[in-house]
Amino acid sequence: MICGGIDLGGTKIEARIFEGPAANTAQVQRIPTPTTSFDAMLDGLSEQIDWLVASSASPEMPIGIAVPGIVDPETGIVFAANIPTDPKRSIAADLAQRHNRPFALVNDCMAFTLSEADGGAAGAYQTVMGLILGTGVGGGFAINRALAPRHGAIAVEIGHVGIPAAAIARHDLPLWPCGCGRLGCMETCVSGTGLSNIAAHKLGQRLDAMDLVAGGHHDIIDIWADIAGECLLTIQLTLAPDCIVLGGGVSNLPGITARLSAAMKSHALGDMPLPDIVLARHGDSSGARGAALVAARQ
């Protein structure tokens, strides 16, 4: 098998060629994301498509594109905050017209989850929740190594579920405004930005995860983990996955899987079964790899 995947982000467009039954990365190229206009961004995507085709010598190779936002499943129009989208134009349709061939478009959190559910860290599980703990919090859901119906386009927006009032009271935290316009979303405490919010409130300075580890501020990390445990329990109560696979910068915290497993267990209802928590196997390549898998299957 040979297929191509493109991970479209706010700062870079990464293209990867995947080969073999395990869909391993064979070649990779990154370019800055043109952000001046929708057409400029399409030019960047087209440049990466041309590179994939030329480098693989396979003009008909399936190519999938992972995008950071909501993809309307009917129109293919993308709604996103950090790339120059157009409310009347579809990325996939415009690229198909330019290159006279179809492209698969998938939400980046969903692409990450599929990659880890099919040949990744969660390959042994039937139901998988992918949870990205980065600047924000997003997720995806896969069943039997395939994206859940309709979820190829729309992420599991667990980051915008409200934090339980008990957790806010327990740690004497304020309700921070979220980028979505609401107050007190999970993202405001559980993301990397959220961890820095907690540090700023308790210590008077904004520190990121690794700074907190280096400074020995384990009490701040404990507060974060406790609230993250509430987030994981919400996932279990609503989706009941067999496994939660972690990605994003905050997932690099030392001992994070054991810490979050303990936090989730402390909030669990009785003896309810809890999912295994694992770290992503494919790391930064999972978005492009998942999009490539979607394209290959189509």
Automatic annotation (TrEMBL):
Top class in the EC scheme: transferase
Iron-sulfur listed as a keyword: no
Name of the protein this chain belongs to: N-acetylglucosamine kinase
Pfam families given in the database record: ROK
E.C. numbers: 2.7.1.59
Catalytic activity: N-acetyl-D-glucosamine + ATP = N-acetyl-D-glucosamine 6-phosphate + ADP + H(+)
GO molecular function, one term: N-acetylglucosamine kinase activity
Keyword Zinc on entry: yes
Keywords from the UniProt entry: ATP-binding, Carbohydrate metabolism, Kinase, Metal-binding, Nucleotide-binding, Transferase, Zinc
